[in-house]
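thought: fold this chain, then report.
action: predict
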Amino acid sequence: MNKRPFSSHGPDQPAEETGRDDLFTDERGHFAEHVGKRAPLKADRLPDAAEHYLGHRERLRDKYRDHGDTSLADYEILELLLFRSIPRRDTKPLAKALLARFGSLAGVFGAPVSLLQEVKGIGENVALDLKLVATVGQRILRSELREKQVLSSWSSVIDYCHAAMAYEAREQFRILFLDKRNALIADEIQGKGTVDHTPVYPREVVRRALELSATAIILVHNHPSGDPTPSRADIDMTKTIVDTAKPLGITVHDHIIIGKDGHASLKGLRLI
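observation:
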């Protein structure tokens, strides 16, 4: 590549005497002079490796367009997404590295930004793009809850909570606040803790329910270990909230514990 600056002066004319208009006129002339001598852009500018991955991208888009998502492996779904964040690179190795690190698509999208960036080739912008996809999915699931009576859409509740919490690195304590028709009023995270503990204050839970005029609540928290089995502390805390809320006309429908490998319902286990 010619790195010499373009100028309109001849060999005996100093560059500093050249006017700005002449500089741009000569620059246009330089490109016009050379346009007939250059090979076609694709052959001149793209190395074989680039041609290969661009062809692969087009084939993968065609496959998705013609046959839908069922025709694609998980790593190919990730590739399609990464195309938009990483325009000039073969993203297949990166997609496979993400799945190897986090185990599944759900694990990739549920991983914190800081952990995503530990995968070589994933910078902050790419990590944030992946989290944005996860956020869109969670918002869709939550919007479905708002349009239905929660207790008649229990599988939707579980799907939403799993998408929102299963892959969090720390425990979260979340409350779904319901009205007298058991429709969702609000979904709030009340606390974040460590890998195996979240502080919960029963009076604060009930106070917030009264503020929102909720007549029922569903308690939810995650176990970052992946095992949703309730601990003794989980059971005792739930019973305390039930006992505090009941005299004020607030029903605790359930306490759901979310893990990577499934969920546990304290009501289903007859622990409340």
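thought: worth noting. The mean pLDDT is 81.
final: tokens above.
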